Amino acid sequence: xxxxxxxxxxxxxxxxxxxxxxxxxxxxxxxxxxxxxxxxxxxxxxxxxxxxxxxxxxxxxxxxxxxxxxxxxxxxxxxxxxxxxxxxxxxxxxxxxxxxxxxxxxxxxxxxxxxxxxxxxxxxxxxxxxxxxxxxxxxxxxxxxxxxxxxxxxxxxxxxxxxxxxxxxxxxxxxxxxxxxxxxxxxxxxxxxxxxxxx
Length: 199
Prior knowledge:
The structure is a single chain. The chain has one domain (2-197): UDP N-Acetylglucosamine Acyltransferase, domain 1. The protein is 13% helix and 32% strand. The chain has 1 helix and 20 strands.
């Protein structure tokens, strides 16, 4: 009986999510390919002259009930800044995570991004250690993030500006990624370090 209730609720979340995104794309610079499934209502903010492109058969999941860990919030796609973009490749699955671009974030095909991941291409403010009183007024320079095809990112990961994650890499849960990740490797920790690589 519980399983049936979850299936009905999930179907409702899918209906509402897809309807919301369909309405949103009428008024915003968002391109959505065929077969995209949106479970629940994501937070999608697109500033003027910014854009989002979502590839075919992508899953954006904000439905917590039957997900294997707890999601702290819905999917959030936030694009600000002139010409800023988010690109999500085909068949990628993203669960309850935040992707915030002030310059650009590209996510490849068939990527798996677990809940509570934060992918941000800027720090928000400059360090200004010699003039800290001005820090709160400062804005840092964003750096583009590239996540290549077939990358698996565990839950609660933080990916910093300027990072490139190579094809087929795995980022273990709770990692903080400050440096590039080689293709077909596993990184783990804070800061994330290489623990395994395919020859």
